[in-house]
Fold this protein.
Amino acid sequence: MLDVYAGMVEEDESDWAEASLATVWEVVAAESDSDACAEALEVMEAESSDEEGDVGSAFYAARILDLLGLALESALRPDFTKAEFVANTAETLLGSLDFTLSGEQSVIYRPGEQVPPPGPLVSRDVAADAEFFEVLRGAGLRVDAPVVPAAVVSEIRRASREAGEEYARAVRGVISDQG
C-alpha cells in the first residue's frame, strides 16, 4: 500500500514512510532490533500530517499511515491479531478503491442472486496473500513462525513490492482525480 501512498503525497513526505517500512522488513528478517521500530514510530508521529480529510486522497493516505503504524507496532511487539487486522484493513481499502475505479455504482443483490467477483485490486490482494502463504509453506514455515529466515523475508518482500506497484498503477487516475 505504500506505493499508493507515495502517489498521493509529495516525495519528501513519502521518504520517511518508505524508511519506516524498510525498518519493519529489517526487523522481521532479524537484520535490525525492535528498537528501530520504536524510533520509526516516533518519526512517524512527528512527520505524519495532523490535517486529515474525510474523502479522497487524504483519507486513503491517512489509512495507509495507520497500516504502517500497525506494521511497526507488530514488528516491535509481534502480534498475529494485529497483523491480521492490517491485512483485513488493507483489503477493505483496496475494495473501496475498486468501487471508485468501477464508477461508484451501487448494486443491491437479493438472496440467491449471483454476486460478482471482487474487483481487480482485491483480486490481486487475494493472489498476493496466496503467494505469501505459498512462500512460507515452501520454506516449511507457518504464519506464526517465531523466526523467518532472511531469504524468505526477501522473497515475501519482493512479492509485496510487485503487488504494491500494481496497486499504484491501477489507482493512479483515482489519486489524480481526488487529489
Summary: The first helix runs from residue 2 to 8. The CA atoms of residues 18 and 56 lie 22 Å apart.
